[in-house]
Amino acid sequence: MLKDPNCNKNNTIDAHCHHISAINEANSSLNLSSFYLPSDMVVESAVIGNNKIELYIKSVLDYGICPYCGHISEKIHSQYQRVITDLPVLGKRVVIHFRPRKFFCQNDFCSKKTFAEQPGNEVFRYRRRTRRCEQVVTHHGLMSSSNDASSLLNGMGIPLCNTTVLRDIHRIRIPENKEITNIGIDDWAFRKGINYGSIIVNLGTGHVIDLLGDRERDSFSKWLECHQQVSLVSRDRSTEYSTAIALSGKRIIEVADRFHLIKNMSDCVTKTISENYSDYRNAVRSGNEITPEEKCIQPDIQEICNDKLSGDKKQEVNNNTDSRTIMFNEVKELQDKGFSIGAIAKKLKIARQTVRKYRNYTSLPPRKSSPRNEYFKFDSYVESEYSNGKSLVNIFHEIKNLGFKGSKTPFHDHYRYLSKGRKGRRTDRPKSIKKIKPQDNREPLIPVKTISSIVDKGIRMKELDEKEDILIQTLISIPWFKEIYNAATSFYKIFKEPNGGQLAEWINEYRDTELAKLKTFITGIILDMKAVENGIKYPFSNGIVEGFVNKLKTIKRMMYGKAKLMLLKRKLVLGTLLFN
Ligand SMILES: [Zn+2]
C-alpha cells in the first residue's frame, strides 16, 4: 500500500494555499468524518484558509471492492488525485481532496482489469461535487435560468459555469408515472400565434406530468396510448383534444373546463356590448343638449370653434383667462379697500412698481409691443420678384434700399412661405392660437373594456359600488343588454350554485335569441353538451393547469425564450415534483 502524502505532517502545504492562516485540528473538535457517513471515509486533516476550507479524506479500508463483479482486492495498481467541491460553510468554500487507489481486479472472469475506489455515498462516480452540493445546484438551476443560477452559486462559494448547471439539470431522470387517472390539459404558446405546445397536469396530485411539443390530436393520442390508466380528462373547448380522446376508443370522461366556459360567456357579453356601443352612448347622453363649447373636446376642433365664436365672446373668454387683467382687477379691488402699495405687492406676490403703475391707471391699457416691420408694403413686390427667379437675399438688399426697416432673419422668416417645400428650408410652424381650456360637462363615456369588467363582476354576483350599479342600471334599460346579462347571470348560477338550474332549460330559454354572439355560444355548447354537463357534475377544473401555464410563461421569459421543449419540461415537471 502506498503511503498517503497527506498523512505526513511535515509535508509541504499545497501551492494553492498561500493565505493559510491557521491549521488546526478541526477534525477532532467537529468530528468532520460524521459529515461523510455512511461511507468508509475519514477526514484526516483540515486546512482553513482565508476563503476556503480544505479537507483531506481517505478510506479506512485496506482493500477495494470491484464495482463490476463484487470481488475484494488488496492489490494496488496506482493512485491519483480527485478534487471535489462540497457545500460552503461559514462563508468559505469547502474543497475535498481525495486520493483514490486503483486496484487490480483479481477475478479472472471479471470484464475489467482494474477499478478505482469511490469516496463513499456522498459523491457519484466521475463527479466533481458532492451529492448535496449537486442538489443545491439543480435546485437553483430549476428555479432560475442557468446564467442566474451560476452567478448565485459563484457568489455562494460553489464556482461553476452555466453549462454545468444545464448539464446537471439534464442529468436528472424524470420519474415515469403510469398510474395517473385524472388529468387536465391545455395549450400554451411557444410564440403567440405561431407555434403552440400542450401541458398535462395530474389533477390528483397537482403536479405537471408532461409537456407536448404541439397541440395536435396525434401527439395527444400517442400520449394517451402510453398512459392507459387515464379515465378523466379536463380540457378547454378545443376539438383537437376531444377528437384524440374519441379516437383512443377508451371510455374517458371528458370535462369541459368551467373556467373556460364562463370566460367564453363573458367574452360573448363583451363582444355584444362592443357591437352595440352606440346604444350605450345614446342611453348615457339622452336628454343632454350639447352646447357649442361642449363640442370643443379635441384641441383641433376647439380651434375651429374659437374662430366661429363671435368677437365679443372671444374677448370675454380672453378676459377671463388673461392673468394680466385678473391681476389688474385684483390690484384695483385692494386699492379700493385701502391697502398700501407694499401690502398689495406682498399679498399678490408681484413687484411694487407694477402695483404703483396699476394704481395710476383707470383702465388697463393694451400691452406695449415692439413696432412691426411694414411687410405689407413690400409683400406684392417681394412675391413678384421671387416668382421671377430672384433670390430672397437679393430681394432683401433691394427693399432695404427702398426703405424696409427690418433685419435679415425676420425677413427670411416672414417670406419662408414662398420657398415652402424646397429642400433645406424649414416649413412654416403653425401659428399658436390661445386655447381655451376645454370644458365638457357631459356624462363621460366608459370604454368597452371597463364596462365588460364591471358587467363581469355583476354576472359573478360580486359587490358593486355605486357608480358600477348605476352603469348596470343604465345598460339594463337597453333590451339586448337585459337579455344577454340575464342569460350570462343564470349561466353562471348553473355552475356555481348547487341548485342553480338545469343547463338544458337554460339552452331552451335562450336558443331562439336574436343576438348572434349568444346564439353561436349556445350552438357551441350543444355540440359539446356531454363535456359541459360533466363540467357541472364533476369538481375538476382546469384552474391549476392555467396556473401552470402562467408559471411556464415566466420560466420561458426568465430564459429569454431560449429554452427548448426538453428543458422547459424538466424545469416544470421536476420543479413541481421537488418543491411541492
Ligand atoms: Zn471485477
Strand tally: 14
Strand content: 5-15%
**Given the C-alpha coordinates, what overall shape results?**
extended
Strand order of the largest sheet: 12-11-10-13-14
Low-confidence regions: 1-24, 287-321
Ligands: zinc ion
Based on helices, strands and strand pairing, what is the structural class?
Answer: alpha+beta
Q: Could you give the distance between the termini?
A: 49 Å
What Rg is obtained from the alpha carbons, in whole angstroms? Answer: 42 Å
Oligomer: single chain
Number of helices: 24
Characterize the largest beta sheet: strand count, sense, and whether it forms a barrel.
5 strands, mixed
Number of domains: 5
* Percent range of helical residues: 40-55%
The chain-level mean pLDDT equals 79
Helix and strand topology:
Elements: H1 26-30, E1 41-48, E2 52-59, E3 64-65, E4 72-73, E5 76-79, E6 82-89, E7 92-98, E8 101-104, E9 114-116, H2 131-143, H3 146-156, H4 162-171, E10 182-191, E11 195-202, E12 207-212, H5 217-226, E13 232-235, H6 239-248, E14 253-256, H7 258-275, H8 277-285, H9 299-308, H10 311-321, H11 323-337, H12 341-348, H13 352-360, H14 375-387, H15 392-402, H16 408-414, H17 448-459, H18 466-476, H19 479-496, H20 503-510, H21 516-527, H22 529-537, H23 543-558, H24 565-579
Parallel strand pairs: 2-7, 10-13, 13-14
Antiparallel strand pairs: 1-2, 3-4, 5-8, 6-7, 8-9, 10-11, 11-12
Helix pairs in contact: 2-3, 2-4, 2-24, 3-4, 5-6, 7-17, 7-19, 7-21, 12-13, 14-15
The structure holds zinc ion.
Describe this structure in a few short sentences.
With 580 residues, this protein is of the alpha+beta class. It contains 24 helices and 14 strands.
